[in-house]
Write a structure and sequence with these properties.
Two copies of one chain form a homodimer.
Chain A lengths: L4 E2 L9 H7 L9 H18 L4 E6 L2 H12 L5 E6 L2 H12 L3 E6 L8 H10 L3 E7 L1 E2 L4 E2 L2 H8 L5 E5 L18 E5 L10 E6 L1 H7 L11 H8 L10 H17 L1 H21 L15 E5 L6 H12 L1 E2 L1 E2 L8 E5 L6 H17 L8 H10 L2
Chain lengths: 379, 379
């Protein structure tokens, strides 16, 4: 019987306890009962974000949180830096364009990461730059950005550092405060093991300084309003109550495992995915210097139809991985290691890759992938 | 044992089948499997909106859909009409202000409705007005606006008519196409019986004409992007998957009952609520000429602390009604008739009102409220 194994980099698998929590009877949001959940959720998020700053919860996808960063920080004519090394880096540029922010765009070959030095050079040359927008894990390519090094550079300037951590949060280490990250954007449906529908954003005092000067219009995503209501354990607009309550459950699960253990767990899964791909004679898309542990991007071997490959895994075998996006369509496929994906899920996924590659006539030594994963995972 | 009976005007009770559907395993959104749900949801919403126009689904609260209307239709310096007869009418003015739209604000005594003639006079005097923003059911006061009459007026002009139907949709009749409404905004957590987290917006061709000219910034709420992706049964950003799947279930339930039967059902509940309040010697806040069937606003009797009254019902007896907002704080309380609230729920609510009024020393003839409701409901 075909099951539905989600190994896509968002949405990710949702634990049973979180589903159960989603089905709890809805309570009204302007009550002490809901405030208890909201407080627990906001406090728990701070631990995952590794920050003392407020983390605001929005009813939106991760893109909503990203838009909140741009429209709250900047004014038309302001200058910023964006890094385009994939689809989500491009989103920062698009958002800047929508809000008439002049973006200095650093073009990066897909599959490689920006060099922090490139950001330093632009900041040194133009003291008017107000914000640097980067991506922790570029889901479209599997690249991890060196946020710590960029944080060291940006903190010396008046600019704020904004990190899209929609993917990667809770998987790749991101120390918001220690690394001087002013704004971190994230969402519910990746490392946090919830269905999509919540956006999260942490905001530093330095960022609030800039927010005071912003002239761009905003209402639903107004961070000053978010701050004012959060101070009273409230939200400016009706929150996505069921998802917030379920969030407290997923935060509890993550807390029980511990952040450090999570990072180690996903590092092991990612390593196993890489080794098993190579054992099958496949090559990895992402440069070895900057591989995220949240998603492994694998090149589709020559002669195999990448679209059909992913579709067959999903529709015939019930295993959902992601194909490539934009220019990578049909050329790569991607396996996630996030949230509650575990060793057995990964091995089932690798086994499915083997099955479908075999069906499609790819020539390789059977079971080598699964064996490599078993060795790497020590299962 | 204290239960949790939600009689507040949003969020409202969620049917068991919808909860079950919320807990279905998450599937990826860019798959034919999810497209089936999305298509069903978009088609089902058209029936409730009584429109042939597209209805777009957003991961947001209802305010997100309202912001989408303002930022997509208008440019800085454009003129519009808003009606302030309650908290949600004020929201249209605030949104206009945020986007530098000059709003001619019609002030209306809370508890009464705007006269369509007032809108006609402003439109006649100023041909540059591009949009008229009104509220179907003003949840803060229980007032229903005469959308049909306003539609007849606005259709003669170049302006578009935008209706906030976050409350009231599926309860008070709103014939978007027959009544010439260009944009209807709504949300998941009132008449549609879902937890909050989805915003809906229908857009007419006349509205799309104006959208083409708009210069205000937008990204997450960009309706051109929504249209482009909806045409391919997709969403511009990750949708709130679990809520969309659950929406198909609630639409199925509403379809089974039929819209006409729903309107009749809620009219009966509202009438029963009004009669039982009066039987208890209480007075109704809302002018009799414009009472919505979605929510009944009742004046807190002299000598009773309105805040404590609502709090006691909720915390001691597990019955959640809403108090008054803004200037009505402590002065009124509100009972909803929406979604899956039925005769038994209403009677339980009235009984709880009696119990707490008695406890608080209000002098009335015991059980008269429940009896009046029973008669009105013929139960």
């Amino acid at each position: 019987m075909k099951d539905n194994l989600l190994l896509s980099p968002g949405p990710t698998k949702v634990p049973r306890e979180v589903y159960d929590s989603l089905g709890s009877p809805i309570i009204h949001h302007r009550t002490p009962q809901f405030q208890n959940y909201l407080k627990e959720a906001m406090e728990g998020l701070k631990e995952i974000f590794q920050t003392k700053n407020d983390v605001f919860i929005m009813a939106s996808s991760g893109t909503g949180a990203m838009e909140a960063a741009v429209c709250n920080l900047l004014s038309p004519g302001d200058k910023a830096i964006t890094v385009e090394g994939g689809k989500f880096g491009e989103r920062w540029t698009e958002l800047c364009k929508a809000y008439q922010v002049e973006a200095s765009v650093i073009q990066v070959t897909w599959g490689t990461a920006v060099q922090p030095q490139q950001i330093k050079e632009i900041l040194d040359a133009d003291k008017d730059i107000k914000a640097v927008f980067v991506t922790l894990c570029e889901t479209s390519t599997g690249v991890k950005t060196d946020i710590q090094a960029i944080g060291e550079i940006v903190k010396q300037t008046n600019a704020v550092l904004v990190v899209d951590a929609v993917s990667g949060l809770g998987v790749d280490d991101l120390q918001a405060d220690n690394w001087h990250v002013d704004i971190v954007c994230s969402a519910s449906h990746k490392g946090l093991m919830l269905p999509p529908g919540l956006g999260f954003i942490s905001v530093s005092p330095k960022a609030f300084g800039l927010i005071e000067q912003s002239k761009n219009p905003k209402y639903y995503f107004d961070l000053k309003k978010a701050k004012k209501t959060a101070d009273k354990t409230d939200t400016p607009f009706t929150p996505a109550i069921a998802l917030v309550i379920a969030l407290t459950k997923s935060l509890e699960i993550i807390k029980k495992r511990g952040l450090e253990n999570s990072f180690n767990h996903f590092a092991k899964l990612a390593q196993a995915a890489r080794e098993s791909a190579e054992a099958l004679g496949l090559t990895l898309f992402t440069d070895p210097s900057c591989r995220s542990n949240a998603v492994t991007a694998i090149n589709v071997p020559e002669g195999i139809d990448g679209g059909k490959f992913v579709k067959t895994m999903r529709d015939t075998y019930g295993v959902t991985m992601a194909g490539g996006q934009a220019s990578l369509k049909g050329k790569i496929f991607r396996i996630a290691h996030m949230g509650c994906i575990n060793e057995q899920d990964l091995i089932a996924g690798i086994s499915c890759i083997e099955t479908v590659l075999k069906e499609m006539g790819y020539d390789f030594e059977a079971d080598k992938g699964v064996k490599a994963a078993q060795v790497a995972l020590q299962v």
